[in-house]
Amino acid sequence: MPITAVIFDLDGVIVSTDEFHYQGWQRLADEEGIPFDRHVNERLRGVSRMESLEIILERATRTYTAAQREAMATRKNGYYRELLASRLTAADILPGVDNFLAELRRCGVKTAIGSSSRNSPTILRMIGFDQTFDATADGNDITRSKPDPEVFLLAASRLGVPPMSCLVVEDAEAGVTAALAAGMRVLAVGSAAGDSRAQYRADSLAAISAATVLT
Ligand code: BG6
Ligand code: MG
Fold first, then answer.
1. Quick check: CB of 76 below 6 Å from ligand 1?
2. At residue 215, does pLDDT exceed 90?
3. 115 Cβ below 6 A of ligand 1
4. Tens digit of pLDDT for each residue in 163-188?
5. 117: CA distance to ligand 1 center in Å?
6. I want to staple 182 with a disulfide (CB 3.0 to 4.6 A). Which of 55, 76, 112, 152 is the partner?
7. 13 near 204, Cβ under 8 Å?
8. Which bound ligand lies closest to the C-alpha atom of 94?
């Protein structure tokens, strides 16, 4: 079955906002006195805001009510959005993205975003990518975040393409699991580049040509 559509994760695949997510969580964890580091941060890739908080709270020494958890997630999102507003520009688009997209377009392949992030529309606007993709599906559209396949199945349906004709580009273990559960093929990049479950692997989109994944 040839690939007729490519669905991209956003954070850590299209744009380096994954670093701002990390800094936002680190600030919150420091304020609360909860141990947190880049190793724990790897587990947050691809999962929703509230699920990320639950992972961080595994190391907390006190308990938090549902209302306090909600407030903490909102606080982190405020820190994250401050970083986006002050630091995010088109220069944060990751290496190889523009060329890879142009190559797909030349081959007549459709493109979409499949992201767990509720900030996805804002980020796409800020980097000038709000008209770039044929469809988008994000955290605002779904009830179950990765590793559930919902966001990728929604993106495929918005493109009008069957899942088995889609390739997903992911930097998260949860995202690779989600794509495979959707019956899609996977190109794992960045932090997920060592994931042996993916059919294709590359350090970044600059290190692989679209032709490689379309044949
Ligand atoms: C994913 C990130 O893209 O979005 C996760 O990899 C993040 O780290 C998730 O938790 C939700 O993002 P947001 O912007 O809705 O808090
Ligand atoms: Mg990601």
1. no
2. no
3. yes
4. 999 999 999 999 999 999 999 999 99
5. 4
6. 152
7. no
8. 2
